[in-house]
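Fold these two proteins, one after the other.
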Amino acid sequence: MNLRPLAAAALAACLLVLAAPGRAEWLRAESPNFIVYSEARESRVREQVAQLEDFDRLLRFLSGTTAPPVASKLNVYFVRGNAGLSAIRPVGSGIAGFYIASPEGVLAAIDETAKITGESNYDTLFHEYAHHFMLQYHPAAYPPWYVEGFAEYAATARILPNRMEFGHYNPGRAWALSQRQDWLPWERILFPEPNRRMTGEEVARFYAQSWLLVHYLVRDEGRRQRLRSYFAALGRGEEPRQAFAAAFGTSMADLNRALHRYPDEMTFTRGSRAAAAEAPPVTITRMPASADDLLLAQAALKAGVPQRLRETFMARVRRHGARHGDPFAKRVLAHAEILYGNPAAAEPLLAALLQAAPGDAELLYLRGMRHLVAGNADAARRAEEYRLAQPWFVRAHRANENHYPSLYRYAQSLSGERRFVSENTQNVLLLAAHLAPQVQEIRLAAARMLLRRDRFEDAELMLRPLAASAHA
């Protein structure tokens, strides 16, 4: 594959259509779009944040996004080794990172020590953040090939000390494309059969060919205009094959020939790096010593601990929580007891923490969760426990109106009451989905409420991004 750089002026033309680690000292760094946790020295943490903020700027440039940063920032954990990743969520060897969006939180984790031939450690993080960004600012039913192809296209960005480049290729995808005799038919990429599952090899080719197709379409003004027309036709509900033929005026055979030639014509773009001229605002705080034992456990609570590991997880959190006993340790222990232990045991921990910080939205939320989880476990007391949970979720929302878990759990606490199916609950769920559009469970709950209130077209709009996902 030959990649030739374009002049920096060409930048403006490329628009998007559409067991725990050892002793450490954790730092928390907050910027406009991210909350980063890292064991690195402060200068390195500032560079980690700057790279993420520059990548966010790149996505805004590519997509034409002018909306300000959202209040619900992405939590990113930089860990050292597979054990660090597995302390959050068990993963196999060879995994460089992952992204999880759950009702408890949205986070990404990246192994700084991972060595993947020909790839940056940031490839996985950039790929997932591209999905996160699209759902946040441009939620629509893009075809799966475009969703994954654009994420692959963006993920190969190279953020160097004084410049940024994008439009490169991923060596693994390039290798899959080199086996040209094994390419999937483009009809299977563009118009997949809903119930036909792909093999592992076919999935690899799907990603590689989707990336190639996106690269081909977005780096030429004429093809970008045709892609816009195609998306507009899909938005109007036109049949995909007919809409594609009308927008691009090409047969599958002609498209295949063009894409077989394209790797020898590919270009990439080089431009200046924003952070080199002006570093993003970053506030860095040092985490307490207990974070060495409990920070990744806190992340695991947001990600969700598999059933088979909960007993071991709880034993470890209780041991470290008792040993440290500082506010951070008590907070993590209370959260763990609520979700996987004894919810009642969290009550005195939270009482002490709230006495010191009565306006802490997360603590108020956990106080409500203490009753919601107890109600989920005891049908006889469910109505009473749900009633006890409600004022805590209301207080949490008042303390932080952007704390989406409080909104979602408040709606759940109303589920046994006659007032559950109402405009108020609908609006609560819609706000939660607006704040965290990446959380599938919340989108589904909002869509169900819209259906129950006969708002069928709105429900369809809520469900379209999920239905179009290549993963689901």
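Now the second one:
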Amino acid sequence: MKFRLVIVFAIMAMLAVWFLPTPSATANGGSSDDATFTGYVYDTKGKLVGPITMPHVVKSEDAWRAQLPSDVYHIVREDGTERAFTGDLLENKREGVYSCVACNLPLFASDAKFKSGTGWPSFFREIAPGNVATEVDNRYGMRRVEISCARCDGHLGHVFEDGPAPTGMRHCVNSASIAFTPTEEVMTLADPAADKFARRQSLSSAVIAGGCFWCVEAVFEELEGVEEVISGYAGDVKASANYKAVSAGKTRHAEAVQILYDPAKINFEDLLAVHFATHDPTTLNRQGNDVGAHYRSAIFFANADEKALAEAFIADLTDQKVFDKPIVTTLEPLTEFFEAERYHQNYVCDNPNQGYVRVVAMPKVEKVRKLFKDRLKDKGDS
């Protein structure tokens, strides 16, 4: 199989360069504001597409004040409420979409709007799962559930359990928090995230783990045919897919990467060849000084073909005695891949002078540049 001979030389050339501490969120300069959400947006054809993982829109309050009229700012950013029966969208009966006034995320559709008699636009459901966020609101001596835009955290209103069938819910929304777009113009809500989603749909995907995802991401980003590499988590549920929990060893997740690639230019076995040449698959739950099950070597197979290819590849390496020790790479069914916090993405490229990057990640990058010259995006000398 292609590339297997080069693996023998790759392993013989592998050096131990592990002496820096495990990277932390603090060292990376990350913050909770860097989180992502998963929702739906419109494409240029006016079709709602997703689910798509997107970054939150985070701005300073000064920036929001400059963008929004003062009355809108008070409601959207300061959790204000417009007076009942004063909103200009209360009696709107046209067919179309209601989106966030601050970031244009679609939130509600006209087919879910109903007359509640409360004095505010009301909807019995959101337009798509994930676009409307909820949080318990205990202010003013009462318990309510606040609703907000999932992308920019803009205040919308509250949701109550006194709506009509089929949901029984009433999303009570300030007119000032939403903008209306008629159905015939909904393509004007086209979001750049939809183009990215379409490109991803046309590619094949592989999920692989082998130590710190910064390193693994940087290695695969070098390869021709690899369109995108996303750092994230695989092996456990969404609720625990965050760096704080994973790095503390409190989950079954591994730090993993999702590789989106063009199968006409590079195939799954090619990716396996590069992976086994650039990490140590014989150390259980560790890569150098990065220790813990979240640093395990793993292939998360999406189907039976990927599993069979990975099994055959590992068996071949074992038969050739490429490694002095048994390969401990796990083959695990892929249930779902969760994108990591934004500050983890493209970390090596964005932080070339960071200590861990220089000593641990860059030697791996240099290795792939040396061993797979004919497979690089930049065929020039490195």
